[in-house]
């Protein structure tokens, strides 16, 4: 006959169990938020990504989606490990937390280094923007089969209140501008009050003279700054989760023996 012993826990173990469960719920919600940001980036900022002729920014968004998914799964494993009081699952959960912690620290530090222009990527970012954005505007705007690019350029110029890549003068070399019969000097989206055919007059009172490159670069670097702060902040919060996991694991082990 097999005699089963009921599990008896000390007050400390019970407190650790519920604290870790609460942490896992918050961690799971944080993963959902990161996943939502990644999906939002792909859905809402895909226009800007298409202007750069680069997979770097879309890849970054998909990395956010992947990270959010991993965090959600890890949070679920943590909840199961805590409720089932499984030391094996607690060990797996700790390893996953530690791996995510290292990745977030590395990503956060890289984002800060990029923001401070201490990393070669900043030069590559500036070079890519200046090469690709100008070429895209001059050769693809209002061209057959390039409706998405045209919409993205118009959205960029109106949202950032800019005109052209470096300045409004860049539009003088556009394929669309030099087409016979086109009497516009700049697209209507360059106008401070966009209306049909307002791009016929390039007076500073009518259009934005500043280029979009500097503003787009500033926007991207500011996002890196925020990403770095959030990544490092969440990473240090995970230290609490790892400590709680270790304490609960040790308490369960001591109670068994």
Automatic annotation (TrEMBL):
Q: Which InterPro entries match?
A: Tetraspanin/Peripherin (IPR018499), Tetraspanin_animals (IPR000301), Tetraspanin_EC2_sf (IPR008952)
Q: Where are the transmembrane segments?
A: 21-42, 62-83, 90-113, 226-249
The alphabetized list of GO BP terms reads: cell migration
Keywords from the named record:
Cell membrane, Glycoprotein, Lipoprotein, Membrane, Palmitate, Transmembrane, Transmembrane helix, Ubl conjugation
Topology in the membrane?
Answer: Multi-pass membrane protein
Q: What is its main location?
A: membrane
Mention any one GO cellular component term assigned to this protein in its UniProt record.
Answer: plasma membrane
Name where it's found. Answer: Cell membrane; Membrane
Q: What family is reported?
A: Belongs to the tetraspanin (TM4SF) family.
Provide the assembly information.
Interacts with integrins ITGA3:ITGB1, ITGA5:ITGB1, ITGA3:ITGB1 and ITGA6:ITGB4 and with CD9 and CD181. Interacts (via the second extracellular domain) with integrin ITGAV:ITGB3. Interacts with ITGA3; this interaction modulates ITGA3 glycosylation pattern. Interacts with F11R. Interacts with RAC1 and CDC42; these interactions mediate physical association of RAC1 and CDC42 with integrin adhesion receptor complexes.
> In its UniProt entry, what is this protein called?
Tetraspanin
**Name of the encoding gene:** CD151
């Amino acid at each position: 006959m097999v005699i089963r012993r009921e599990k008896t826990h000390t007050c400390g173990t019970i407190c650790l169990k519920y604290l870790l469960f609460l942490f896992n719920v918050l961690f799971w919600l944080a993963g959902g938020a990161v996943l939502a940001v990644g999906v939002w980036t792909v859905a809402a900022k895909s226009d800007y990504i298409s202007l750069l002729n680069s997979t770097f920014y879309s890849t970054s968004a998909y990395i956010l989606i992947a990270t959010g998914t991993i965090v959600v799964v890890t949070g679920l494993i943590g909840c199961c490990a805590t409720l089932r009081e499984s030391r094996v699952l607690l060990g797996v959960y700790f390893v996953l937390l530690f791996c995510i912690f290292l990745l977030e620290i590395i990503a956060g530090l890289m984002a800060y280094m990029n923001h401070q222009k201490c990393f070669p990527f900043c030069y590559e970012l500036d070079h890519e923007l200046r090469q690709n954005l100008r070429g895209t505007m001059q050769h693809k705007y209002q061209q057959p089969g390039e409706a998405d690019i045209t919409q993205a350029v118009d959205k960029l110029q109106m949202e950032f209140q800019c005109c052209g890549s470096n300045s409004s003068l860049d539009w003088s070399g556009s394929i669309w501008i030099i087409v016979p019969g086109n009497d516009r000097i700049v697209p209507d989206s360059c106008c401070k009050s966009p209306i049909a055919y307002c791009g016929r007059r390039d007076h500073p009172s009518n259009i934005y003279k500043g280029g979009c490159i500097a503003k787009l670069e500033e926007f991207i670097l500011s996002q890196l700054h925020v990403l770095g702060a959030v990544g490092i902040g969440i990473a240090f919060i995970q230290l609490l989760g790892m400590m709680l996991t270790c304490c609960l694991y040790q308490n369960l082990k001591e109670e068994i023996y």
